[in-house]
Design brief:
single chain; 81 residues; mainly alpha; 3 helices; 64% helix; flat; oxidoreductase activity; acetylation; Cytc_oxidase_su7a_met; oxidoreductase
Length: 81
């Protein structure tokens, strides 16, 4: 039992240790990319992921607005029984 607990502690310590690998600070490169004046809106400078997220959001907004208009028209002009 104790052996299993010690093994788990060793794995956890190794997994969550900050000395395992050194990561390069990429903030200056990202700041440079986002601050350059290339005519592209800031919300699309992140790449393909940002573009897909933006288009999905706009598509859902248009579909939702269309559905709201459809429901309002349907409620304003009820069917005659």
């Amino acid at each position: 039992m104790n052996r299993q607990i010690f093994a788990l502690q060793r794995v956890a310590r190794r997994t969550f240790s900050s000395s395992g690998r050194r990561l390069e600070n990429q903030v200056p490169q990202k700041q440079k990319r986002f601050q350059e004046d290339d005519g592209m809106p800031i919300h699309l400078k992140g790449g393909v992921g940002d573009t897909l997220l933006y288009r999905a959001t706009m598509g859902l907004t248009v579909l939702g607005s269309g559905y709201v208009v459809y429901e309002l028209v349907k409620w304003a002009c009820p069917k005659k029984a």
